[in-house]
Amino acid sequence: MSSRQINPNNWIDLYSDYLFNYTISRVSDRVIAQDLVQDTFLAGLKSMKNFKGEATERTWLISILKRKIIDHYRKINSNKGKAEVRINYKESESEGDWLEERVADPFDKTAEDTLQNQELGDAIQNCLGKLPAKQANVFKMKTILGHETETICNELNITASNLWVIIHRARTAMADCLKENWF
Amino acid sequence: MPCNEANHVCDKTQYKESTLWEKIILNLHLIYCSACRKYSSNNGKLTKLLKDSKIDCLDDKSKEAMKKEFEKALAKNQPE
């Protein structure tokens, strides 16, 4: 029996940031990530009748997005041979460089690090979702997108002191929420 | 320094927007105020978590553009 309903009217507000964050960590290009998220929403809209209500909308959209990301890499890889760069060490100048490349990279990410980052990202997104819309918006602009105080004030037509009050409330709520779920 | 101002400076410090003088006064306040010390500690933890997570999101303009495109598709998809 299907327990969950599908309602695409709020998809962008509810899931665009979550899907974008999921994508950017996998494709590392804002424009491509944005396109993939947009394609996901459109594909979701077209295949709405396939939604059985067994998972949440977000999980269902993520499953579509995963396929979009795989398709994206398939497309890139089909051109791989054309742009392949071969490295050789025959030139005297580069002699010995191979040794550096074989040394373990202390900054290399392990699977555990990636998983922890993903879980942390999920926890933060969930807490952000619980904030009132205006607070979440100001917090994202200031903290995640790193906009200047003046830019945000001009864009949202608020005073600087108003912005700091909103930031304070958002930070307190975020810290409380993450304390329950992460700290 | 009253507590609400200490919290405000603490918030500004998370975004590197406080002055050296403000930070000195804040630290003096933190010596004797346990509530603000707790707030400051949690605030610092939050900043670190956000940095570690490398979380990203769409800016408003991109989201609006996405919304417009989607609404067009949604209108086409509505049953007659």
UniProtKB/TrEMBL annotation, chain A:
InterPro entries listed in its UniProt record: RNA_pol_sigma-70-like, RNA_pol_sigma-70_dom, RNA_pol_sigma70_ECF_CS, RNA_pol_sigma70_r2, RNA_pol_sigma70_r4_t2, RNA_pol_sigma_r2, RNA_pol_sigma_r3/r4-like, WH-like_DNA-bd_sf
Keywords from the UniProt entry: DNA-binding, Sigma factor, Transcription, Transcription regulation
GO biological process, one term: DNA-templated transcription initiation
Ranges of residues in domain RNA polymerase sigma-70 region: 14-75
PROSITE patterns linked to this entry: SIGMA70_ECF
Gene Ontology MF terms in the entry: DNA binding; sigma factor activity
All copies of domain RNA polymerase sigma factor 70 region 4 type, residue ranges: 122-174
One Pfam family hit: Sigma70_r4_2
Signal peptide from the UniProt entry: none
Protein origin, superkingdom: Bacteria
Matches recorded under Gene3D superfamilies: 1.10.1740.10, Winged helix-like DNA-binding domain superfamily/Winged helix DNA-binding domain
Family under the similarity heading: Belongs to the sigma-70 factor family. ECF subfamily.
Protein name listed in UniProt: RNA polymerase sigma factor
Organism expressing this protein natively: Algibacter mikhailovii
